[in-house]
Amino acid sequence: MSEQTYEFEDWIGRSERTTDRLSAARSRRWLATFDRSSPGDGAMPQGIHWCLNTPEAPTMHLGADGHPQRDNSPDSFLPPITLPRRMWAASEVEFHAPLVPGSNVERVTRIESITEKEGGSGPLVFVTLSHETSAGGRVAVSEKQTLVYRGAAAADAPLVPPPTGEGSFDLSDWQATRSVLPDQPLLLRYSALTFNSHRIHYDAPYASKIERYRGLVVHGPLTATLLLDHAAQQLGDNALASFKFRGTSPAIVGEELILAMREVGRGTGSNIELGAFAADGRQVMKAEAAVRA
């Protein structure tokens, strides 16, 4: 059973306000990263908000894993949790209005909760953040993001995920599927777009020896953006009113990733289920969305 982490009780409710600009150049780079052409109506596809209002810690203030250091200083927004490994575990997103190149963007982030659990690999601390992203004085995206912190991996811990097995993904259960192959240039470009220096995405020796991954790890929001793009190919851009995802297993660079979608309701306002899978059927990400009415 989870319980409040009282050590960090004073951090709950803390908020920060950041500003950014969705420039035409950044928009073009995002579209190039995902092999997308410019939208005819000028509105950017869903998922671009994860590349805005990103942390801007100086390089000298990065921790050993590449994330901004967490301490008790006024410059540290997140609490000084000592567990060294961090993962973006899940998000629940509501899309209110599309973002347009040239917009000035503001995001207000609030620490909603900090809880601890005991997992199979040891202690875990979950931090839930609420984000409200606005452009032109109008709320564009609301999101609840869950981060999880874990203890250090043992030096002899098995590498994760396990090697791809002999099984195969069952295409017959899904209405629309597509295979993609996340490669190192894609990971590098997405890290640059999001100003993300977490070493598991570009430093192979660190990823395997320290965090015990079998290879470079595909960013969680990158996989989520690929799922949003898959939905857009079927439904059109900015067709989703809401989208939530949860990572279930790491995706490894250079290995096939199967994107899948199926309808679970009928008509306008229906719901869809999405998933990202390894070639042997191992699920990497679970997601669901509501189609805009």
Would you count the extended β strands for me? 11
**Total DSSP helices:** 4
Main beta sheet = 11 strands, antiparallel
Helix/strand class: alpha+beta
Question: Could you list the spans in which at least 5 consecutive residues all have pLDDT below 50?
Answer: none
Strand content: 25-35%
- Terminal Cα separation, in Å? 38 Å
Listing every helix as H and every strand as E from the N terminus to the C terminus, the arrangement reads: EEHEEEEEHHHEEEE
Q: What's the alpha carbon Rg, rounded to whole Å?
A: 19 Å
How would the global form be characterised?
Answer: globular
> How helix-rich are the residues, as a percent range?
10-25%
Average pLDDT over all residues = 94
Q: Could you provide a short overview of the structure?
A:
By secondary structure, this protein is of the alpha+beta class. 14% of the residues lie in helices and 35% in strands.
Overview of this protein structure:
The chain is of the alpha+beta class and 293 residues long. It is built from four helices and eleven strands, in the order E-E-H-E-E-E-E-E-H-H-H-E-E-E-E. Strands 1, 2, 3, 4, 5, 6, 7, 8, 9, 10 and 11 form an eleven-stranded antiparallel sheet that branches.
Q: What topology does this entry show?
A:
Elements: E1 3-4, E2 15-22, H1 24-33, E3 85-95, E4 103-119, E5 122-135, E6 138-150, E7 176-180, H2 184-193, H3 204-209, H4 220-235, E8 240-247, E9 257-263, E10 271-278, E11 283-291
Antiparallel strand pairs: 1-4, 2-4, 3-6, 3-8, 4-5, 5-6, 7-9, 8-11, 9-10, 10-11
